[in-house]
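Pilot study result, target chain (252 residues):
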Amino acid sequence: MTNGVPTNAAANGPRQSTAGRDVVLIHSSDLHLGGDSRVHDMRSLHEVLDAARALAADAVLLAGDVFDHNRLPLSIIDEATRLLGDAGLPVVILPGNHDCLAAGSVYRRGGLAGPANVHVLGITHEESVELPALDLEIWGRPHLDHIDMSPLSDGRTRGAMRWNVAAAHGHWVSGPQDHHRSWLIHQDQLEALDTDYIALGHWDRAVRVGEGDIPAYYSGSPDLARSVNVVRFTAAGAVVIERVPFEGMAER
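Predicted structure:
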């Protein structure tokens, strides 16, 4: 139990059957809101939420570093809280290395975890959020502090929801040249997961990684990738991933 909320607590309504329709998840990360704390630049958050509405998404997953650091003024946290609370759909946030859950975290100082539709791993839920209305579970290990850790070590047992997403904020190890980095994610860790999609954050560019059958993708930052990842869990049981540019939204 974390902050009075039990692990795997269900959110946003009773369980419903989604067998007859697709479930659409928007995956983004590394918004780095407040990078220049002198201005309230919420453009990247506006773009992600606008994309979710344009694409008729059922939920949004932000896989780390939503905020640039934990020293931001409350006014920036409050503005982000308002935008997320008004999103009109569930938003799941995995704190990253920049906005970790250390003392004074943006997620502890403000009311960002207050809106009923906003779920912050490590605050409102320990490591897992169940969205029964979508038959979807999203789990991940939040960065609790600035100390190095491996976000996908010791994977967990899949829950009862039809669809499962694993979220992680860290660096994919493509070879020996990466071993000096922090928050490492290894191929054997991906292979050990029982999940349908692996949503990654920490890289600015959007790219698929890994060599196994489970799709593992970085979304890239909205500012640089200029896109979101659209994860479609189809009624037929397939998982379809598409990178959709912001500039192409009007054409859809």
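One observation from the pilot: Confidence is low (pLDDT under 50) at residues 1-10, 13-17. A full batch analysis is planned for the follow-on phase.
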